[in-house]
Amino acid sequence: MNKHPNLRRAVRLCIFLLGFALLLAFANTHLIQTDTIARLTLHEMQQRDDIELAFVGSSIVRDHFNAPLITQETGLNAFCATVPTASMPASIALTKEMFLTNDPQWIVLVTEPYNFETVRESTEAQYKLMPFLSDPANRLDYYLRTTDEDGYYLDRLLMFRGFGAKSISDVIKTVGLRHFPEKTYARLREDMDPTVSYQGSGFLRHETDERADDAIRTVVREYTGYHYELFDGSREQLALYKQLCEENGAQLMVVIYPNHTAHALAEPGFLDYNDSLMAFCQEMGVPCFNFSFARPELMPRLDAYFFDLYHMVGEGADILSRAFCRVFEAYTAGEDVSGWFYPNRWAYLDSIDFTTNAWITFFDPDAPWNPALEQDEARVRELARTQDVFLADCNHTAIYTPAYKFVLRGADGSETLLQDYGVDTLYACEPGALDGQTLRVYARIQGHEETGEVWYDLAIPAQAR
Amino acid sequence: MSLFFLIAFALLCAALYYLCPNRFKWVLLLLVSYAYYAYCGAGALPFLLLTTLSTWAGALCIGRIGARGKAALKARKAELDAAAKKALKAQTRRGQRAVFFAVLLLNFGALALLKYASPAAQALGLPALDLLLPLGISFYTFQSMGYLIDVYNGKTAPQQNPAKFALFVSFFPQLIQGPIARYDQLAPQLMQPHRFDMDNIERGLLLMLWGFFKKKVIADRALPLVSEVFAHQGEYGGAVIAVAVLFYSLQQYCDFSGGIDLVTGIAELMGIRLAPNFKRPYFSVSLGDFWRRWHISLGAWMRDYVFYPFALTRPVSRLSKAARARLGADAARALPAALGNILVFLLVGVWHGATANYVLWGLYNGFILAMSALLEPAYRRVHARLGEGVVKSRAFYVFRVLRTFLIVNIGWYFDRALRAGDALAMLYKTAFAPAFAQLTDGTLLALGLSADDYRILAVSTAILIAVSVLQERGVAVRRAVLALPAAARVALLYAFMYFVAANFVGAASGGAGFMYAIF
């Protein structure tokens, strides 16, 4: 080689670059943050070889399918193979990883519009999953699948950039969870949020008194126009997923997760998406159950158990898990389970005889869009010439008519009635009369007063106009 | 077109280049150059071909007319008197000139049409024209026309082989944003097969890494702040605007010079040396010095093909003579340079864009250079009065660098503002309505950059300045790095490469293309 200095230097350059690649690989595995529960789930799944009934998906699976309970009820060893915000690429990678050591009879793919309406994988899910996939081929396949969609080749390759450790304790945690997951979890447990606990088999239980009411009240509004759709890419990946299950001797079942009713009312796109998915599963010959459409005979409405817009506390998870077990056992026994579900969206919507949330808007005649355009615009504009006009609205189905009550709410919680329950959505007053005060609207469905009322506060700034 | 694609493509091309038999190396370069350009946008290929073929044919024609004229002159040398010889030469020149101007008009006409027709239509209230602006059209047009002028002036022999000429025009590393190469400097290197040499590979890779650092770590990270403030200048006080202009100085320099470093490094991988385009311009001691260090190839092009030909025209000579009689020898000497500078920078301004802010930017630079030329004797007198000790002192050097930096940055207001009115408003606010409170009330963290971004930019800029200072002192940094002991070299390079890998702005964070590619 001494006779070929160029060759010697080329080899030296290759070694130098290889060394740098190893440095990056080290950073990618040790200088990153690690999701404790995702790591524990992966680790447990890799250690086990007895999984018979696997639930695959994102955090909605992790939080809502109580695998220990389902194991008890069905007699099959259940497991939740999950990574938060996972889309289809992560589900495929997770399932492949499971097939390395397990031969499940059933794979239950749990979907929701958020993580299934596109095949694009969030970088967050990828960062949490990819470093812990044991099979390099699976890792590469997953990487290529995710980058194929968005072209983020380097961002997704160099995980220490977007998901890098922020402190030494992050590094210690990552190293611990990578090499000694159980011991590290036991140590971390003391400082973790006491309202969550990893129950094993991939199930994370939430026990909190918090509920999603405030979030629903302030975040969820009427249809925004966003269209959730089952895209061709999702169909292709679902078909591929079915093939993957078949090749490994597992039967695939698809479960549509029951979102909070407010979402169903506010976003018709959810229902469109669910319909498309059901139809596609039928085409593929895959059983699909939409738990959004569950009748009360199967399970009660779960809205009261949501502690944020998407996740339920353990009690809600138990109800959903038991309902799933009933459907699963009946289905596998060859029984007709269709009676437990509303047959279509219209029947489902008819069952929603309450409103989930209401809101008020101050009418601004100069705003590019204002709610009056969907109400009695001429009347509102006429009123607005001489008065301050407030418009109330709420989420409800078309067959029910909401009624509204307007009150002035004092700082001490006292209420002064301004306008009692009626179908009029408007409240008008002298200009500036409510400046600096809080206007509250109550809403309920007329004729269904027993289903309860919801409210919303509008703090009116001084000199609102 | 992704920067990562360019790098991957370049590495593949370099490997193929050395595997290719020597006689076909230039053919390979031509093929990959066209493949690269087609990948960037196949629709732009006809324009590249038009420029290539028209310039090649025009130059060939000019060469043949010249040769025919010479042959005729030689054949009839004995029978022609001096007047007839002169008439024959003039006839030859007329033929050459006709072809020359036809090709010049065709190419600059196409460039002007594609670049200015749409904004002109909009300015006249007509509907915008949907014209494709081919990537890098300015650069390959200027490069081709430089060749044509050289052939016309007899400095370069016309290339007979259209494919070889096509390679000169389209060599992929410098096709998109320059540097604008001279035929006699680049073409022989492209035709000559280069042997595999690790010196070229190591130096090329280092330069590519440096260019990548400047572009993706500094320029793209600073971009959001610049875009935000210039787009909504009305919302910000003068102090924040001044910060944005400083960031623009950094961003523009790192974007353009980083891109040039990258393409120069790519060319070096294949043993081809491109002309330098930047020479640490922010260390300039005068505006003239700045423009000799910034976009050097365009400056040289303008100097050789616009400035000197203009300064030597009869009207300018006459004006100079008239000035000598009335204003003295110094003014007579300076006047052609002053007028030439105004013309050159007006053209450079218009080249940047057909809007008032660019015209004002060009005129601003032109007038300052013109005034500098005219006031040169006064400067000399001031320097003489200050004494050599002061003029050659470090403090005076720093003063001159800072003064030039300030002058250049005032120009950037016009260069980057969306409208001339915006630039004037921003300048006014910087001078009279700074609103310093915005520097500390959290506004700086609401301009698209996080605290981490500022930290990364601070470290990166410190590295950039340190390297620039070394280079300014004559240190060949790449050579010095490669000459370090192995352990130190590896540690230094790993540390720098890790810093770059950890902090470059990736596609997920909205990295941008090269800003000069759109010219």
Structure description:
- The complex is a heterodimer of chains A (465) and B (519).
- Chain A has 465 residues and is an alpha/beta fold.
- Chain A is 43% helix and 17% strand.
- Chain A is globular.
- The model of chain A has no long low-confidence stretch (mean pLDDT 90).
Would you summarize the structure shown here?
The complex is a heterodimer of chains A (465) and B (519). Chain A is α/β, with parallel strands linked by helices and 465 residues long.
Structure characteristics:
heterodimer; A: 465 residues; Rossmann fold; Immunoglobulin-like; 3 domains; 5-stranded parallel beta sheet; 4-stranded antiparallel beta sheet; B: 519 residues; mainly alpha; 2 domains; globular
End-to-end separation of chain A in angstroms reads 84 Å
Secondary-structure-derived class of chain A? alpha/beta
**In total, how many beta strands of chain B?**
0
Oligomer: heterodimer
Kindly provide the radius of gyration of chain B, computed on alpha-carbon positions and rounded to a whole number of angstroms: 25 Å
What name does the CATH topology of the largest domain in chain A carry? Rossmann fold
DSSP strand count of chain A? 14
Mean pLDDT of chain B: 90
Distance between the termini of chain B: 15 Å
Total of DSSP H or I helical runs spanning 4+ residues of chain B:
22
Sheet having the most strands of chain B: none
Helix content of chain A: 40-55%
* Unreliable residue stretches of chain B: none
The low-confidence parts of chain A are none
Radius of gyration of chain A: 27 Å
| Shape designation of chain A | globular
Element-level helix/strand string of chain B? HHHHHHHHHHHHHHHHHHHHHH
Describe the protein's topology.
The complex is a heterodimer of chains A (465) and B (519).
Chain A: H1 5-30, H2 36-47, E1 53-57, H3 59-64, H4 67-74, E2 78-82, H5 88-101, E3 106-111, H6 113-116, H7 123-129, H8 136-150, H9 153-157, H10 159-162, H11 168-179, H12 181-189, E4 196-198, E5 204-206, H13 213-219, H14 232-247, E6 251-256, H15 261-266, H16 268-284, E7 288-290, H17 314-332, H18 345-350, E8 358-362, H19 377-384, E9 388-394, E10 402-409, E11 415-422, E12 426-429, E13 438-445, E14 454-459
Parallel strand pairs in A: 1-2, 1-3, 3-6, 6-7
Antiparallel strand pairs in A: 4-5, 8-9, 9-12, 10-11, 10-13, 13-14
Chain B: H1 3-19, H2 25-40, H3 45-75, H4 82-123, H5 137-152, H6 162-170, H7 172-175, H8 183-191, H9 198-231, H10 238-269, H11 287-293, H12 296-311, H13 314-327, H14 329-352, H15 356-374, H16 376-386, H17 388-391, H18 394-416, H19 420-432, H20 451-472, H21 477-482, H22 486-503
Helix pairs in contact in B: 1-2, 2-6, 3-4, 3-5, 3-6, 4-5, 6-8, 9-10, 9-20, 10-18, 10-19, 12-14, 13-14, 14-15, 15-18, 18-19
